[in-house]
């Protein structure tokens, strides 16, 4: 179980918008996640088929995959030939993928547009998510690139451990191999049950 906890901890960050990808937005880049105590950097790949984060933690490689239109998240641990499939609104899914986590919270918020800003050379639309029940409470600030159809930066203002966030760098268009979004043959697949009630 240590490996499962490690996977959840290393990608526990912020919460973004779940967005359908489009072919024009295919890219690769580096995403830095930061929290109140540390930061980590991951490789990101996105195409019309979905998106993927690659990471190394304690000398062990791993990946988080979400296919376009899917309500499931896949966590790969290649050295153990293990794949875990979890519902997108499961707490583990939300801890391992900021996009799925934001999808869970956005129903409780109100978006307000805040102009345009450039994040590391990429023009983005800035927006702020406020708490619907307490409109003065700022929940998230997001910078979204229409060119790449993906958030370039996000700040989570309600992280219980302190303000956290993510930022994309070194983003460049590329052709992403479709096999990156599939579970490799020979992997043991484990289904993770949902333990989170649906948010109305």
CATH level 1 class label? Mainly Beta
Compressed to H and E, one letter per element, the order equals HEEEEEEHHEEEEEE
**For this structure, what is the CATH homologous superfamily?**
Lipoprotein localisation LolA/LolB/LppX
pLDDT averaged residue by residue: 79
Number of domains: 1
CATH architecture: Clam
User: Roughly what fraction of the amino acids lie in strands?
Assistant: over 45%
Arrangement of strands in the largest sheet: 7-8-9-10-11-1-2-3-4-5-6-12
Total number of strands: 12
How many separate helices? 3
Largest beta sheet, briefly? Answer: 12 strands, mixed
Structural classification = mainly beta
The gross shape turns out to be globular
Radius of gyration: 16 Å
Q: Can you tell me the CATH topology?
A: outer membrane lipoprotein receptor (LolB), chain A
**Which residue ranges are poorly predicted, with pLDDT under 50 across at least 5 consecutive positions?**
1-24, 196-200
Description:
- A hairpin with a 2-residue loop joins strand 3 (50-57) and strand 4.
- Helices cover 12% and strands 48% of the residues.
- With 200 residues, it is mainly β.
- The model is unreliable at 1-24 and 196-200 (pLDDT under 50).
- The longest helix is centred in the N-terminal third of the chain and has 10 residues, at 2-11.
- The protein contains 3 helices and 12 strands, in the order H-E-E-E-E-E-E-H-H-E-E-E-E-E-E.
- The protein has helices at 2-11, 91-96, 98-105; strands spanning 27-34, 39-47, 50-57, 60-67, 72-77, 82-87, 109-119, 122-131, 138-145, 150-156, 164-173, 188-191.
- A 12-stranded mixed sheet has the order 7-8-9-10-11-1-2-3-4-5-6-12.
- The chain has a single domain, classed as Lipoprotein localisation LolA/LolB/LppX (outer membrane lipoprotein receptor (LolB), chain A, Clam).
């Amino acid at each position: 179980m240590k490996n499962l906890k490690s996977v959840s901890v290393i990608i526990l960050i912020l919460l973004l918008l779940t967005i359908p990808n489009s072919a024009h937005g295919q890219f690769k880049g580096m995403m830095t996640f930061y929290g109140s105590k540390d930061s980590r950097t991951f490789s990101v790949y996105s195409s019309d088929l979905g998106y993927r984060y690659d990471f190394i933690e304690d000398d062990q490689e791993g990946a988080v995959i979400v296919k376009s239109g899917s309500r499931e998240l896949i966590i790969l641990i290649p050295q153990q030939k293990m794949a875990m499939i979890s519902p997108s609104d499961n707490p583990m899914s939300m801890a391992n993928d900021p996009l799925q986590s934001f999808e869970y919270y956005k129903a409780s918020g109100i978006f307000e547009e805040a102009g345009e800003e450039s994040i590391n050379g990429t023009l983005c639309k800035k927006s702020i998510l406020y708490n619907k029940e307490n409109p003065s409470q700022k929940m998230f600030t997001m910078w979204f690139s229409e060119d790449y159809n993906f958030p370039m930066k996000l700040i989570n203002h309600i992280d219980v451990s302190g303000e956290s966030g993510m930022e994309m760098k070194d983003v460049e268009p590329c052709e992403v191999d479709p096999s990156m979004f599939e579970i490799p043959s020979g992997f043991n697949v484990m289904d993770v049950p949902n333990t989170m009630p649906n948010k109305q």
